[in-house]
């Protein structure tokens, strides 16, 4: 099954390629970006890819929980989830702060960044509930995550 986050990443990559934003790809960055900093399309793509990779890995981790989440299994998964949440949070912060000169890409970034924020918030909530072994609340957070990912996927920006 294809992950919604992977589909979003692919659509962003295709949109950037169509806009002539090829070249050497940049890797993920943990550095902060001052609000309003203009970045290259390649940097935007790298940050988008990092966010999508973290969300996709988080989704894969949720799938490993199985149909019935046991408190012990959730607690065991929590450290991995925390790492993925941190990666997504960092990429989201970068995407929120940065600006692009290309108006189409800037419009895309402006639409996608808040939607990604909802995904990250749901990830944070699930990770917290998993760490506490609260299966019922984790299930609600997993549903919130799914809804947020669908909203991100459905946005017009990556198309």
List keywords for this structure.
159 residues, mainly alpha, elongated
Please characterize this protein's 3D structure.
- The chain has 159 residues and is mostly helical.
- Helix content is 73%, strand content 0%.
- It has helices at residues 4-18, 41-65, 71-97, 103-131, 135-154.
- Helix 2 runs antiparallel to helix 3 (71-97) and helix 3 runs antiparallel to helix 4.
- The longest helix is centred in the last third of the chain and has 29 residues, at 103-131.
Structural class: mainly alpha
Main beta-sheet strand count, sense and barrel state:
none
Low-confidence stretches: 13-24
Mean pLDDT, all residues:
84
- % residues in beta strands: under 5%
What proportion of the residues is helical, as a percent range?
Answer: over 70%
Please report the distance between the alpha carbons of the first and last residues. 21 Å
So how many helices? 5
Q: What order do the helices and strands follow?
A: HHHHH
Quick structural summary:
73% of the residues lie in helices and 0% in strands. With 159 residues, the protein is mainly alpha-helical.
Helix and strand topology:
Elements: H1 4-18, H2 41-65, H3 71-97, H4 103-131, H5 135-154
Helix pairs in contact: 1-2, 1-5, 2-3, 2-4, 3-4, 4-5
